[in-house]
Amino acid sequence: MVAPTLISVDVSKPAWEQDPEKPLHNRWHPDIPAVASVKEGEVFKVECIDWTGGQIKNDDSADDVKGVDLSQVHYLSGPIAVETAEPGDLLKVEILDLGALETWGFTGTFHKDNGGGFLTDHYPEATKACWDFEGVYCKSRHIPGVKFAGLIHPGLIGTAPSKELLDMWNAREKQLQDELGTGKQKTLCSCLATRPLACLPEPAGALLGKLGHFKHGAKHASWAAVAAEAARTVPGRENGGNCDIKNLSRGCAVYFPVFVPGANLSMGDMHFSQGDGEVSFCGAIEMSGWLELKCTVIKGGMKLLPAVGPSPLSVNPLFEIGPLEPRYSEYLVFEGICVDERGEQHFLDATLAYKRAVLNCIKYLAQFGYTEEQIYLLLSCCPCEGRLSGIVDVPNAVATLAVPLAIFDRDVRPSGTALEMLAAGVRVETTQAKESDVTAAAIPYDAKLDRCVPCAP
């Protein structure tokens, strides 16, 4: 039986011009109305546009990534109300199938003045790689000599917050943002170029489903009040959201806490493939896609989730990994410890350790004919495996990054042959899409992005 399509999209239209009866949204708020409903056990299909709403094109310039409007992302399909779901329940969402709506996707790095990313202090300019899909495989004209199987998944899926939970998010994230530039600012900011420490509510760019868009069309009377407090979709939180977990694919089941009547499930940010960490920020193979889902309500099941924090709402979803994923047997694994590029010792800092592992990998693989920017893009979207390998032995946390050897058309392991190749000047095409004018500043469409703090020199 073919599952009915509950929400459909037209990839040729802007996000605010999708079906007016089932509009999209890009904020979290309990008052954003559900656009559809399903019964328990009903199998249904949902289509999603790419997270930027079509701002990125299949071409050889990174100017669209440089100028992307980040105030208007992520675009989500939903909310979908699940009949019988009530606050305190657990919503089991089974991912039965997924697919692409187009035959291509993209990976990018944002300009340092408009979003930046994990390694902005090393790679400050916008770059892009477009990928062509061939069944389960993908390859890119911008990173030649690489081919791998994708594991399609939604980067973002979650339930709506209650007003109490929303207020908790906004209060704690504002407190963090208020530390920016003060003595209380987190120590990681000294060795990792930061965007704003949090993405607080921003009416500019808000699309609130049936309540309206900030710029196009009529707005509901409650639009301004909701937009002023609706949470941005940038981070993952207690409701799930933008967790970018690459394993949420076919055969997976996710157990979401329910905070509002109907649960109000939403999803989007579809990925053809992603590496652990999605290190370039625009970093999976982003695409428009579809999901086939089934929902079950576990009455009172939220009690099964441990509340680790000051509130009974301080819970997080659980998920079961499905049985299907790309199979690779040989990996080259890179280590990183929490000593920064200046040689300064940090204490059990897992983020810095992972940064070092990624940098070690980039600079090693770049010796095999690639630019460092090409490897940065590749690590964000290929099926590499990130691990916290040591988080106990003071003072160094140890992180590892394992890269499948089979994705390359050459042997990149250390060897005498590799040294001979490097001495001979092995090269591949340096064809990643770049900015056309690196002297022109990027425009931070999100007002908060003009208050970024650079890393210490």
Helix and strand topology:
Layout: E1 5-7, E2 27-28, E3 36-38, E4 43-48, H1 63-66, E5 76-82, E6 90-100, E7 104-109, E8 127-134, E9 137-140, E10 147-149, E11 153-159, H2 163-178, H3 223-229, E12 231-232, E13 236-237, E14 240-241, E15 253-257, E16 265-271, E17 281-286, E18 289-298, E19 318-320, E20 331-337, H4 350-365, H5 372-381, E21 385-390, E22 398-404, H6 416-423, E23 433-434
Helix pairs in contact: 4-5
InterPro entries: FmdA_AmdA, FormamaseFmdA
Pfam family, one: FmdA_AmdA
Protein name: Formamidase
Based on the model shown, name its key terms.
457 residues, alpha+beta, Jelly Rolls, 2 domains, six-stranded mixed beta sheet, disordered C terminus, FmdA_AmdA, Formamidase
Plain-language structure description:
- This is Formamidase.
- InterPro entries: FmdA_AmdA (IPR004304), FormamaseFmdA (IPR054833).
- GO terms for molecular function: hydrolase activity, acting on carbon-nitrogen (but not peptide) bonds, in linear amides.
- It holds the Pfam family FmdA_AmdA.
- The structure is a single chain.
- Helix 4 (350-365) packs across helix 5 (372-381).
- The radius of gyration is 22 Å and the shape is globular.
- The longest helix is centred in the middle third of the chain and has 16 residues, at 163-178.
- Mean pLDDT is 92; it is low at 451-457.
- It folds into two domains: 5-320, Jelly Rolls; 331-433, no CATH class.
- Helices cover 13% and strands 26% of the residues.
- The protein has 457 residues and is of the alpha+beta class.
- The strands form five sheets. The protein has a six-stranded mixed beta sheet with strand order 1-4-18-6-15-19, with no helix packed on it. A six-stranded mixed beta sheet has the order 3-5-16-11-14-13, with no helix packed on it.
